[in-house]
Amino acid sequence: MLSADHDGGDSAQGDAILRLDFRPPAEHVPGFEIIDLATLHERRRRRGRRTDLVHRVDFHTLTLITEGSGEHAIDFVTYPCRPGTLLWVRPGQVQSFVRPGTAGGTHLLFTPAFPPHSSSADRMVREWYGPGCRQLGTSPQYAVLSTLLGQLRAEYDRPQQEVSAEILQLLLATVLLQIDRLPRPDGGGDPYAGGEVFARFRAELEGSYATTRRAADYAHRLGYTVKTLTRACAAATGQPVKHVIDGRVALEAQRLLAHTDEPVATIARRLGFAEPTNFGKFFTRHTGMTPGTFRQSQQGGQTLKH
């Protein structure tokens, strides 16, 4: 129910995991689309896709469940979907249907370039990670977001010559800022606490985690000291910079082991390990399982549930 499944949107881009790019069937507004989940289901049926298809997207999806129930998995965590569930899947994250069920609601898709860059909401879009799920129930926050999404849908559904991209951008920014007001789940950390230093580091890490795991390399590229990066990471995540780097590499290793059939040696090379044995030691140290054991556990359908 929550994949961003656009006709003609498959894009491998050298990725071992299927990646879907932003290609709506009819580009009503560039970089933006809002539909209901029933429409998304119908698209999937037309394309003959399996409901449990594992994939990444190269854009953001926000989904507010308004009726029914189901389950959706984002990076090894399975979330129950019920009225009041808010899901945010970010570019690069791996997601899949676990149990589509009967859940219905509003599905919002937008590219990172769509929100107004003058808005502070833009910083939320640039973060590659964050809480994937919030359970709002029947709270006032749910009512506010439901109303805003209704306004977005009403504007988007106007005759094409009358739709205002600027209004959609500003309404989207308001939605994102309202989400930013929500309490963070326990242990979620606050990426903004690290300021510009952490934001620049995360951007560099996302592009370089497969080529270097040395904190000194990131410090040199960004013009900071390792101590400065460590302070920023500690403020944002509660962890030193090396733990943040290794955690990103371990996450990608988990994705590739669980969702591809690539040999462990190939995955090791993808992630910058010259020797598979070194990769095996690294993975075991960070996950408590060997790569082979982890892969077997995932093939058996074991996922963390919230």
**What spatial form do the alpha-carbon principal axes imply?**
globular
Mean pLDDT: 87
Helix content: 40-55%
Give the number of helices.
11
Rg computed from alpha carbons, rounded to a whole number of angstroms: 20 Å
Major sheet characteristics? 6 strands, mixed
**How is the largest sheet built, in terms of strand order?**
1-3-8-5-6-11
Strand content: 15-25%
Instruction: Classify the secondary structure makeup into a structural class.
Output: alpha+beta
**Total beta-strand segments:** 11
Low-confidence segments: 1-8
Helix and strand pattern: EEHEEEEEEEHEHHHHHHHHHE
Terminal CA distance reads 18 Å
Question: What can you tell me about this protein's structure?
Answer:
β5 (70-74) and β6 form a beta hairpin. α3 packs antiparallel against α4 (165-181). The longest helix is centred in the C-terminal third of the chain and has 19 residues, at 241-259. The protein has eleven helices and eleven strands. Helix content is 43%, strand content 17%. A six-stranded mixed beta sheet has the order 1-3-8-5-6-11, with no helix packed on it. The protein starts with 18 loop residues before the first strand and ends with a strand. The radius of gyration is 20 Å and the shape is globular. Mean pLDDT is 87; it is low at 1-8. The chain has helices at residues 37-47, 121-126, 140-156, 165-181, 195-208, 215-222, 226-237, 241-259, 264-270, 276-287, 291-299; strands at residues 19-20, 32-36, 55-57, 60-67, 70-74, 77-81, 85-89, 94-99, 104-110, 133-135, 304-305. It is α+β, with helices and mostly antiparallel strands and 306 residues long.
